[in-house]
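Entry for the shared binder. Reason: the reviewer on the internal report wants the predicted structure included alongside the sequence.
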Amino acid sequence: KVSETAEYSLGHPVKRPLDFSALGDKFRACVQSAAVPPSRQAVERVISTIAELEKSPNVTEVIRLMSREPAVA
């Protein structure tokens, strides 16, 4: 039997961080377990919005995209 113990799990913010691409992949996989999974298009918009978050005045768009019933503009 072979086993291995990692002192820091993959995704640890300092010791084993994920790059943005890997974070996007993880988000895509995790969001499918949501009670009401968002559409693939919404997931991709969330990822692209987060990629540009530093240029955005607020996070309202991310919250709207992830809500069950997006707010009407």
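Summary line for the report: The first helix runs from residue 20 to 31.
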